[in-house]
Amino acid sequence: MKRGLYRGRAVVLNSLDYGESDRILTFCTLEHGKLRGIAKGARRSRKRFVGNLDPLSHIDLIFFHNDGSDLVRVEDAKLADAFAPLKADIESLADSCYLLELTSEMTREGQSLPAVYHLLVEFLKMLEAKSIGQEALRFFEIRLLAITGYLPHLGGCVSCREKTDGQRIYFSSERGGLVCRRCSSGLIGLIPLSPGTAGLLSMAARLDGEKLKRLKPGQAFLDESERLLYDFIKFQIGKELKTRRFMIKLKSAWA
């Protein structure tokens, strides 16, 4: 990106107070991928930035990029959508913040991936409208993995390349995909998986939001896919997401 003034749509992924009055922000933008920026005086301003730079804000962003800085300078931000209903209850807020954190962790700064931006906005709108159920997070995860190039191998055994139809199968995060019974010997950390879950995940990785909303997976898929994707994503990024830990605590508190 050359030195100069830019504008475009963005979703605020993260916001941190910096110094006495500034904010350090992370954005998922349509044209420029993930960006980190500084909003000077954002915490004191009552006109320019008030309420527009909170996480989840969908904004029209104007920023200046200087070749000598890792941070762009936020010049203006006009609110397009605050996704207010997602902040109305703790479960919706936790789910949406998980999407923000996962998007931030799975993308690199300056890597232009318009499909990631569109995916994030689409799923936030679906969560807001409650047009998709518990499977929303799993479908978002597998679609994000596909777009960013981290999709696991789900079309047969990753080791011998044989079809796994009708066989007892496992998933290996270390190997990056399905493992058949014969190739599973000696491997650790394997996750048992039904062929139905593997097939539905493989299909979901290729579908858009409208088609995903028509899928109504059962509890077996929800349980198996959550365990598989949690383990695989943790292996890829090398840590557990903060929002994920919070969601587990929240689920335990309500149990």
Task: Give structural notes.
Strands 1-2-3-5-4 form a five-stranded mixed β-barrel. It has a three-stranded antiparallel β-sheet with strand order 7-6-8. α1 (90-106) runs parallel beside α3, α1 (90-106) runs antiparallel to α7 and α4 (195-204) packs across α6. β4 (58-65) and β5 (72-81) form a beta hairpin. The chain has helices spanning 90-106, 114-129, 136-148, 195-204, 209-212, 219-237, 242-254; strands at residues 4-18, 22-29, 33-39, 58-65, 72-81, 169-172, 177-180, 191-193. It contains seven helices and eight strands. The chain starts with a strand and ends with a helix. The chain is elongated, with a radius of gyration of 20 Å. With 255 residues, it is of the alpha+beta class.
Fill in the keyword field for this structure.
255 residues, OB fold (Dihydrolipoamide Acetyltransferase, E2P), de novo design (two linked rop proteins), 5-stranded mixed β-barrel, 3-stranded antiparallel sheet, 23% strand
Can I get a quick summary?
The chain is an alpha+beta fold and 255 residues long. Helix content is 36%, strand content 23%.
Q: End-to-end distance, in Å?
A: 49 Å
Q: Report strand order across the widest sheet.
A: 1-2-3-5-4
> What's the total helix number?
7
CATH fold category name of the largest domain: de novo design (two linked rop proteins)
H-E string:
EEEEEHHHEEEHHHH
Average of pLDDT: 92
**Domain tally:** 2
Shape: elongated
Helix content: 25-40%
How large, in whole angstroms, is the Cα Rg?
Answer: 20 Å
CATH superfamily of the largest domain: Recombination protein O, C-terminal domain
Structural class based on helices, strands and sheet pairing: alpha+beta
| Name of the top-level CATH class of the largest domain | Mainly Alpha
The CATH architecture of the largest domain can be named as Up-down Bundle
Q: How much β-strand is present in the residues?
A: 15-25%
